[in-house]
Each structure stands twice: as C-alpha cells, then as structure tokens.
Hints:
Layout (H helix, E strand, L loop, with lengths): L17 H9 L1 H10 L6 E6 L6 H4 L24 E7 L5 H8 L7 H6 L1 E5 L8 H6 L2 H11 L5 E5 L4 H10 L16 H11 L6 E5 L2 H14 L5 E6 L8 E5 L9 H8 L4 E2 L6 H11 L1 E5 L6 E2 L1 E7 L5 E12 L5 E7 L6 H17 L4 E12 L2 E10 L6 H11 L2 E3 L4 E3 L5 E11 L8 H10 L11 E5 L4 H4 L1 E8 L2 H19 L3
Parallel strand pairs: 1-2, 1-4, 2-3
Antiparallel strand pairs: 5-9, 6-7, 6-9, 7-8, 10-14, 11-12, 11-14, 12-13, 13-18, 14-15, 16-17, 17-18, 18-20, 19-20
Helix pairs in contact: 1-8, 9-13, 10-11
Amino acid sequence: MLQWDNQPRDSTGAANTEQERFDALQSVLAHQYEAVFDDPNAPRTVLILPSLSLDPQVMAKVSGVAHYEERMLCLLMLLRLPRTRVIYVSSTPISSTIIDYYLHLLPGVPSEHARRRLTLLSCDDSQFAPLTQKILDRPRLLQRVKEAIGDPVFAHMTCFTVSELERRLALALGIPIYGCDPALLHWGSKSGSRKIFREAGIDYPAGYEDLSTMDDIAYALSHLKAARHDLAKAVVKINEGFSGEGNAVLDFSGAPQGSALLPWVKSRLPDLAFEAKDMTFELYEDKLTAMGGIVEEWIPGAVKESPSVQFRVDPLRRLEIISTHDQVLGGKNGQIFLGARFPASDAYRLDIQRDGQKAAQALAQKGVLGRFGIDFVSVKHNDAWRHIAIEINLRKGGTTHPFQMLQFLTDGHYDPTTGIFLAPSGRPRCYYASDNLESENYRGLTPDDLIDISVLNGLHFNAAKGEGVAFHLIGALSEFGKLGIVAIGETHERADALYRKSVVVLDREGGRK
C-alpha cells in the first residue's frame, strides 16, 4: 500500500518549505496513477474543486460568474466507475434537481448507486471570492472534507485552476492535485506564452512581453507601430486575463510618425477599447501594474478563425493530444470566448495539432502537469492558412467540460491521427458548445422548468442515438437568464441544428412565463 508523510522534514526535524512539501505530495501521484487510473474497478476518491481562483475584479464582470463553479459538474460522470467516490465542494448549495439531472445522464449506472458515492459540501457563502479561500477559512468544513476523503492513499484533487490557494489546501488535506504546480503558472500567462512559442519555434504575433506600467505599454505600442507602418491596430493584454476579459485594443487610425508617435499613443491610452464590460482605464491600469501584460499586433484577415488545441500531461509525464476546437468569439473586437465547435475544421486541425504539440512538449519538459490549451488565430491567404499561436491556458477552460461531457455520454474516443471523435459504433461525433446562451426571456425559468422543456421538446440527450443536448450552468438560469449547452450530433450540421432548435424552444418557452 502506498504511504507517505505529507509533512516532510529535514535532518534537524524542521519542516521543509511549502514548495518542498508540495513537491513531496505531488510525487505520489505517479504511483497512484499507475495503481488505479487504468482500472475502472479500482477504488479511488476524487475531490472536485471548481474554485475560480483568478482575479476577482475581472471575474466579477462575467455575467452569472458565481455559477461557473457548476461547470465542473460534468465530472460527476466519474461516478460511472463503480468504486469511485466523488466529493464536490461549492460556495453555495447546488439544487438537487441539477444534481439529479447529471446523475440520470450516467451511462450504465443506477443513479441511486452513484448518489451513495457522492458527497456534496457547501460553504454557504455567496460572496464573490475564491471557493478555495472560503474552505481554508472554515476549519470545521475543512475537517468534514478530510473525513469524507478518508484514506488519502488513493485520493486526489482536481481543480479548475491551481493557484497558491489550491496548493495550501492540498497540503492541509494531504492529497495531491492532478494539475499544474502554481510555481509553473508563469508559462501560462500572456508573457510566458510568448516565451514558450519562441522556444518552440512556432509562429506568434509581433509584440513585447513582461510590461508592467502604462509607460511600458506606450513605448511598446509606439515601437510596434514604428516597425510596422501598415499596422492598423494593436492589442494590450493583462497577463492573467480570463476569456478575453483582460484585453484592450488600440486603433492606430490617424497616428503620426516619428517623434510625435509616442505622445500620441500616450494620449490615446485612456480611450482603449476594453473587452470587459464596464472596465475603466483606472482599473485596467491597476490590473496591469499588479499582473503585468503584453502588447501584440492585431492579426488582420478577411477569412479568420480562432481554433484551439487541448493537451494533457499525465502523472507519468506522457503527453496526449485531447481535442481541437474552433472557438466562437464575441465582444467589441471579437476577443471574448462565447463557445466552441468540436472538432476544428478539417482544413487545418491537424496543422494546429502539430504546431501546438511543439509548444506542449516545451511545457511538459518544464514540468507542467494536467490539461491545458493553446489558442491560435488562423488566417487564410488565397488557399493557404497561416496559424499564429496567441495564448496558453494552464488550466481547465471553456472547451474542457463540453469535451468531457461528450466522452462520458458516448463512451467514445478521440483519434489524434484524424482529429475526429468516434463513438463505439465507429461513427463520428461533433458538438456545438456555449457558456453564454443568455436572454432576458429566460430569467425566472427554474431548473425544473428547464428539464420539463428539454424532455417535452425532444432535446434531452438520447443515449441510444448518441445525440442530443446536455445543459450546464443551470443554476444561473433563473437569476441571470444564462445557460450553458452542449449540442451533440453526428455532424457539425446536426450539432448546429440541435443548438438552434434549443434556442428556438427556450425563446418560445421563456416568453410564456
């Protein structure tokens, strides 16, 4: 049996640093992975921690963000493994209707059997703050989590993102995290991403990283424009921006040349076009000073797409291609993540896999663990595509939970040689997914209403056909009129049609309240 001391000490008996303790704890994950991960009948305990341990002021501008903790409910599908126990902690209690909805999606497992192996815990705290901090601030809740874990030997934690808070919680509980060490998170920042792309030798935008003041930004924008007289726009990005919310665009229309350029840029900074709603220059400057940022060229193109490729490094340090997506973007300048189509276009998905894998290998060599994604901007010139890498996300993202739902609901697999997902029948499966299906008409619809609407209108996922719709972010529906959706079909056209049907049905039923 695996055993370890989660409080390693040096020869004098003094406790080692937090990082050394965490390294020792994480070292067990490889042994645990070998022992249980490939055996569906092996006993294990998974603590699911959906904490949004990101900048709270930026996150607060996302509509219904408190309910984003529900996005990891897709991992309740782990209960299809008959000896797996799941602990799910949330800021506020999750409606039993929502939990039942997920448990009834489980293939091949009675929902009551699954429920006996599920522990739901809540902080009963709706204030906007990282869930992990709330847990650490509640010793009695922390003790209940420990009791629910029981024997930690075959237990691990999975998180939306891993920060110093999650590291502290892992040490307090004595279980490892299947995720990236926060000491490596710089490589997932906007500045770190540029360095990885440079190291990997793949195409990325002209620009500057490691900027920490608005003067730095002004100088970088001026140098970029001076070097590229035809540059129409440039993008400023906060290092730790989320879903494009930390981005701002400067339009160079009317910009002078020579010595007048820098003063002109400085005068235009307060008028940056911010992607985040209600963002002010003063707040943006504060965030940039605290986190740093980058300046990059705006990539033009009459035919332009925003694909991404997802990878996983397992505890045995094996790199795996997980999926590709075409992102659906919105906002003032098309930089806010709204949803995604899976898989990415067959015109280029293998190309972005190839380029992304070069960067992924560089990350794996630095010790990165778990799931991460790499975003591209792809521009078509005549009949050829150019793929420009723009960002690394060392965390679960907006494409993670839809793909996991597809895996769990169909029991299929991704073929990296073709970039296609195949159901057990050998037939392909595609989906359209969004976290941002939102309408004033939906306000007041309860989770029970949604399930009634879904079943009565033939939207509910049909396991026999391997097609249908699965919902998430259900808790945000009544208050914010917001909902997440994964529409699964055999083709892109079928998935898109299911999504459009869902919107038509919800618009109609929402208007009947």
